[in-house]
Amino acid sequence: MNLVFAIKGKRFELDLSSVDPSTTLLEFLRYQTPFKSVKLSCGEGACGACVVLLSKYDPILKTVEDLTVSSCITLLYSINHCSITTSEGLGNSRDGFHSIHNRFSSFHASQCGFCTPGMCVSLYSALLDSEKTESSSEFTVLEAEKAVSGNLCRCTGYRPIVDACKSFASDVDIEDLGFNSFCKKGDSNKSLPPFNSKKHVCTFPEFLKDEIKSTDFGIPTSVEELQRLLGACKANGNGVSIKLVAGNTGTGYYKDERERNYDKYIDITRIPEMKAIRENKNGVEIGAVVTISKVIAALKVIRVSPGVEKMFGKLAIHMEMIAARKQFPSDMATILLAAGASVNIMSLSRGIKKLSVEEFLQGPPLEAFDLCALAYLNAAFLAEVNDTKVINCRLAFGAYGTKYAIRCKEVEEFLSGKVITENVLYEVITLLGNIVLPQNDTTNLAYRSSLAPDSFSSSFRVIQQKKTSNGYHLDPPKPLPMLSSTQIVPVNDEFYPVGEPVTKSGASLQASGEAVYVDDIPAPKNCLFGAFIYSKKPYTRIKVIHFKENSVPDDILAIISCKDVPKGGQNVGMKFAFSTEPLFAEEVTTCVGQSIALVVADTQRKADTTANLAVVTYKTEDLEPPILSMEEAVKKSSLFEIFPFLYPQQVGDTSKGMAEADHRILSSDITLGSQYFFYMETQTALAMPDEDNHY
Amino acid sequence: NSILVYSSCQTPQYVHSTVAACLGISEKKVSIITRRVGGGFGGKAVKAMPVATACAVAANKLQRPVRTYVNRKTDMIMTGGRHPMKITYNVGFRSTRKITALELEILIDAGATLGLSMLMPSNIIGALKKYNWGALSFDFKLCKTNLLSKAIMRAPGDVQGTYIAESIIKNVASSLSLEADTIRKINLHTYESLALFYKDGADKLGVSLNFEDRISSVRAFNESNIWRKRGISRVPITYEVSMFATPGRVSVLSDGSIVVEVGGIELGQGLWTKVKQMNGYALGLLQCNGTEELMGKIRVVQSDTLSMVQGIFTGGSTTSEGSCAAVRLCCETLVERLKPLKTTLMEKSGGSISWNELISQAYAQSVNLSASDLYTPEETPTKYLNYGVAVSEVEVDLVTGKTTVLQTDILYDCGNSLNLAIDLGQIEGAFVQGLGFFMLEEQHMDIPTIDTIPRQFNVEILNSGCHEKRVLSSKASGEPLLLLAALLRMWKCEVGLDSMFQLPVPATMSVVKELCGLNIVKSYLEWKLRVTSRS
């Protein structure tokens, strides 16, 4: 069976049996093709540096659907018959840069450039989407601001990126945008050409369309077929691990998933029932693989009863917020619980069964389901009110340190038929305080507990105030104002071209993703890959390194440690002005994160996986306890010397100054924490033995 | 046994000597190549060295190329970041609000190894001295713990120093029940006190942003809103930077194109672009036809430690300037060499001469068209001060603790900027990174996003005038702005909450809510019910 897809209009065909099913699209692109514009940064689909445009063709409707995916979590095998467009596919130094690349360059929106290709693809996708929207095909400032809201950048502070995106909006005057090299003061030309998708890029090549008509691939195309397939797998023997895959976004949150290999992966994105959104008189039924953006679009246009429509509208707005962040604060369970939704689930033994969300959440085997909410707390309230009187309501809370979202029936009953007064609010708050209780091991426990009553009263106060209007402000939450900015810069031509705001050298190359970073240098022949094994204990002796399942995996070529430092060399990993530090821990490690060894394998993935499997046996018996705070260090006089020439100079005489003071504040404390660099490109190097060698 | 290492680092020279020492080979057998770095912020100074060295050891042992791209999780655990600190202080002040003495005890967690932690004390004090404390004394303890060795991160020490200064000002203001800005104004430096505190490099401190009007509108907002409060604050900074010796080489090829090597590394900060501009300017002084197009002929190439020695490190915000200065020296040499030829040729032709003609003649006559030099800062401008001020207005939702930065206005002195667009980018980018430190980054992934930057973000760049000894009177912009973000924490104290609290860093939602009072709604309703029952 072969996998057929296109990248940048070029056809690729792979023998499925030769593809490790857990291979990601990013790994394939970066290691097996020349297309390196997808950058690896977080590796969990959260930062946007690896975003590509994935296009699918529907041979019946003859339409192309384009969407962005994080290639670092997209499985290669799932892109059969798809076409991939990277930033380099939009335009490049040989075929000419795309106007998106030029805007990023001219708005000074690329600094280190590692996030820029992903940003460009996200913007391109947003522009395509708006063109396809039937109601208004104009790209608006509002859409521009959302276009790259799921992409992270550590250099620019985003302002110029937002302006580059807004430069395509139809409702913007270039003069309102930030500093750029298109518009100089006094220029008469005040507009930039709008985006035109027809002019530039073909996201889905014709040859692939022709192929799709003629092939039947072994991916289930109906629920029955899926059921048959699952049945067959089960019949084949116990212990066959199967994973159903659609977007594979779960690997972004469930980090262990990334390291897990299944025997079989089943792509469920081609099953019509699971792709469909069906309306009926009671509401709407949404298939399990419908993308979040499609659900949002559908909810906005569905016309049912006014009350339900309003709820759908709210749901759409809420989902837009979730989609924009890409960090999986999925609180859909809570909101669906309050909405009274139900779920159809299929199992091999019982076929398809309809459950209320409440039953669904409580029933096995789905205990882990709601854990993917990263919020402190989420809450959804649905109430039918008559003036200020509550007729009935549903109150749902989740994510506050509970296994699954819950409904507060006690409070619902209490509220029904009650007029909302301060007294009632107070009683409900007291009740909620006893019901919404986080489990003890939850982080930010007190904060989470406080949010349930407070969110309730914020919402229900509105009902009360409608009537009373007793002088104080309602302060309903308002959407954030649009981003805006001004820049005032002094121009000085005295040393021309010094001082000129010329665009960054190589900015367009960075935008198209052609700029070469260390990991983009093509791997030389016979290249190996390393991954660190680091200490997980602060202060301990290292006894031995072994591996889970007690054997060194076959593919591992070497484990490099301090023993491998050549004769005549020293175990140093850092030599700077006033200190040297060891490369690998010798007998004793002195902190968590200290490197112990480098695992070397023939792919980066194998090296990483093996490093994760490494188990270091530690021995702490004859060692002092570790020093884990500054106070302890001071107590034990564990201090580094500061050279006198680096010690700053005191000013004046403070005892005199203190004596002159009328007031004194004594022994006041300040505490400051750490901050991680979060450069988009993590640490990397490539070492090659050079001449005078038998290599 | 030679070895070639491609390294994403800010410190090729030191990576070079580390690899040589580890392998026990002569430095001539090692070369480190760095083209560009996908973001450094200090993290690719010391912490890049073991990665390059480990690859070198493995490659040496296995006699095959070895590459390592450290995954994000491992990078977070092995690289770490900024130095945590604990500060205890005594401050004395007059009833006139003038501070007369400040005594500090500062504990710095350096981690298990020393690294560059010894640079922290002078940086902390450098930033802290932005106010006139009357007299200032301090006791630093650089703690050796069994925690990950801390790295120097963008504006190391300075960012903490400025924060400490603002905390103290705020504390003094609270104890006198005054606005912090009143205390700031009284304790700002005069030229004389500035000179006393900084010894050298003091310029006039002449920036301010008028914000009195906005204070009153914030007050009005707070009076009419129960669950949302606003705060506004103005914070000045002074930031001392140092210049370092930096090498450069400029060579002209036979078609008139130019290749440039510099010690500095392109980290995204626009170093190459500034170098190109300086090159265009300095060779343009020859005044040939076509010199205005010189910029297009220049290529800055990757750093190779065997080709260009003494590259030291890229950091401290001044490497762009240093590299520009080196390139300028090289160009001056080339101009010297080409001038006589140009004069002869012009006399012969009786008119002007183009750059390309001049170069092809120079090739014919074997003029040396490659010049290299090492810029060394003269005694006086080794150090100088940067100035800036920022005003930020924020809104806090008391129910959730969510904070929104409504508006930030920054005024920053870039001297005579080498590239306005690039300096603007450094100013904005550094500010937002600081915002992350002070408000968001509790977990490693919580860096600022489009949703958390100031909704209105205004920047004005000033040119304070000429300082002849500086590199065409330019100033640094990469790090100082991070300090201005310290103010973001400050207004949180000024939203009219309990005035004496200490706000931890970062001030995340849960932290802010805790300060607002976890039971704020309940307490409010209780109060409301009491009032109603009484009436």
UniProtKB/TrEMBL annotation, chain A:
It comes from the Eukaryota. Residues 209-416 form the FAD-binding PCMH-type domain. Its cofactor is [2Fe-2S] cluster; FAD; Mo-molybdopterin. Signal peptide: none annotated. It holds the Pfam family Fer2_2. Residues 1-90 form the 2Fe-2S ferredoxin-type domain. One of its GO terms (molecular function) is FAD binding. Keywords: 2Fe-2S, FAD, Flavoprotein, Iron, Iron-sulfur, Metal-binding, Molybdenum, NAD, Oxidoreductase. InterPro entries: 2Fe-2S-bd, 2Fe-2S-bd_dom_sf, 2Fe-2S_ferredoxin-like_sf, 2Fe-2S_ferredoxin-type, 2Fe2S_fd_BS, Ald_Oxase/Xan_DH_a/b, Ald_Oxase/Xan_DH_a/b_sf, Ald_Oxase/xanthine_DH-like. Belongs to the xanthine dehydrogenase family. This is 2Fe-2S ferredoxin-type domain-containing protein.
From TrEMBL, chain B:
The keyword Nucleotide-binding does not apply. Residues 3-188 form the Aldehyde oxidase/xanthine dehydrogenase first molybdopterin binding domain. It comes from the Eukaryota. Pfam families: MoCoBD_1 (PF02738), MoCoBD_2 (PF20256). Signal peptide: none annotated. GO terms for molecular function: indole-3-acetaldehyde oxidase activity; iron ion binding. Its EC number is 1.2.3.7. Keywords: Molybdenum. Residues 209-446 form the Aldehyde oxidase/xanthine dehydrogenase second molybdopterin binding domain. InterPro entries: Ald_Oxase/xanthine_DH-like (IPR016208), AldOxase/xan_DH_MoCoBD1 (IPR008274), AldOxase/xan_DH_MoCoBD2 (IPR046867), AldOxase/xan_DH_Mopterin-bd_sf (IPR037165). Belongs to the xanthine dehydrogenase family. This is indole-3-acetaldehyde oxidase. It comes from Eutrema salsugineum (Saltwater cress).
